[in-house]
Amino acid sequence: xxxxxxxxxxxxxxxxxxxxxxxxxxxxxxxxxxxxxxxxxxxxxxxxxxxxxxxxxxxxxxxxxxxxxxxxxxxxxxxxxxxxxxxxxxxxxxxxxxxxxxxxxxxxxxxxxxxxxxxxxxxxxxxxxxxxxxxxxxxxxxxxxxxxxxxxxxxxxxxxxxxxxxxxxxxxxxxxxxxxxxxxxxxxxxxxxxxxxxxxxxxxxxxxxxxxxxxxxxxxxxxxxxxxxxxxxxxxxxxxxxxxxxxxxxxxxxxxxxxxxxxxxxxxxxxxxxxxxxxx
Length: 280
Fold this sequence. Notes:
InterPro entries: AAA+_ATPase, ABC_transporter-like_ATP-bd, ABC_transporter-like_CS, ABC_transpr_PhnC, MetN_ABC_transporter-like, P-loop_NTPase. It comes from Paraburkholderia bannensis. Keywords: ATP-binding, Cell inner membrane, Cell membrane, Membrane, Nucleotide-binding, Translocase, Transport. The chain has 280 residues and is an alpha/beta fold. The chain folds into two domains: 1-14 and 21-91 and 178-280, P-loop containing nucleotide triphosphate hydrolases (Rossmann fold, 3-Layer(aba) Sandwich), CATH 3.40.50; 101-175, no CATH class. The protein has helices at residues 48-55, 85-89, 107-112, 121-126, 131-143, 159-173, 189-206, 217-223, 246-253, 263-273, and strands at 2-13, 22-33, 37-41, 67-70, 73-77, 80-81, 92-95, 177-181, 209-214, 226-231, 234-240. The strands form two sheets. A six-stranded mixed sheet has the order 7-8-9-3-10-11, with helices on both faces. Helix 6 packs parallel to helix 7 (189-206). The N and C termini lie far apart (45 Å).
């Protein structure tokens, strides 16, 4: 079964009364199989974040024939988000670039928030979590390597630790699909590696489907067998990450290919393929 199935998805943002609308997504067709780990790449403004937010049912697409299915259930149809969206979102763990933690609360409480959707109303209102959920929280924090941080305020964690707490929250949520929107964009290289290792662990050890948007092509090649590349709201490449040669990147993005390659990444890819990215 497909974890994600998208047909003819388009999104136009209004340009105001005197300006034409901007096409953020343009006739996107995409399928992601259950258990895949897929990278979503593209320069700034290519539509990566917009696409992920549509998959999660946060925003509706243009009112035209289209569909988004999550784990076999429609979440959007013809530009309308379905009534059952909250129930479907229980299976979606969304990891934001800026962590989306409540800084004044403890790490444990932030992670336990992932369990709220399956708890009765009185527990949600009082924050009285059952022992089984607290045990699951401890196990999740330990698995992502910050079990000793449970009692600390989220604000006291480093950026990488906060992102790992967000991944632990997805485990407690018992999500089946992880959507990660540039989760390493604001992290140092070592923290980035740890977060990507955690995403790979969720995919490999827990069988979760992972779609992660990235700016760095070398990271996509290292962690994700498949890459989907967007440009101007369209899918311009969907295939093996290993095939993303410098020549192909130039063909897809022209001079904008430089944005997708950090200096170290450019060296790693050119070493791999015996070619040099033209930065002229």
